[in-house]
Amino acid sequence: MVASLCEAEGWDFWEDVDAVQRALSAPGVATLVALEAGQVVGAAQVLSDGGINWILAMLIVAAHHRGRGVGKRLIAEAFVRTGARRLDLLTEDDGPQFYRSLPGREMSGFRLYPP
Questions:
Q1: How far is CA 101 from CA 20, 80, 105, in A?
Q2: Integer angstrom CA distances of residue 48 from 10, 30, 101, 106
Q3: Domain boundaries in the chain?
Q4: Is domain 2-100 classified as CATH 3.40.50.300?
Q5: pLDDT score for 10
Q6: Strands of 39-48's sheet in order across
Q7: Distances 31 to 54, 60, 84 between C-alpha atoms, Å
Q8: pTM of the model
């Protein structure tokens, strides 16, 4: 289950399974899931306005499946399924090295919180 993967990473806001289900199936959202032997080993969530902007809002791969191409395959499929011409994203921790291995360019970004 996607919520379990995210919770295992210590990600905030992912403990409410119903809220996660609503978020992953909301209008304008494309959610992809990678399975191995019937188990969720990765997931990607792309948000879109329908034709101009695409945001890779979430990409997660189970720790024991990293380095096997799961994340790259999820991103490739996200382009196919959404018709995106680019994916914008924010990342932290060990993410930058992974994303630098893909075609694209690095930009700065911010995550804002309410005052």
A1: 29, 19, 10
A2: 26, 8, 24, 20
A3: 2-100
A4: no
A5: 87
A6: 29-36, 39-48, 54-61
A7: 13, 12, 14
A8: 0.90
C-alpha 56: how far from its chain's center?
A: 5
Amino acid at 27: P
Q: pLDDT tens across 43-89, in order?
A: 999 999 988 999 999 999 999 999 999 999 999 999 999 999 999 99
Q: Which two tokens stand for residue 7?
A: 């919770």
Please, which residues have CB within 8 angstroms of residue 24's CB and are 6 or more apart in sequence?
Answer: 2, 31, 43, 45
Alpha-carbon distance 7 to 15, whole Å? 6
Beta partners for residue 46, in sequence order: 30, 56
Residue with tokens 């919180």: 113
Buried/exposed 12-26: b ≥16 CB within 10 Å, e otherwise: eebeeeeebeebbee
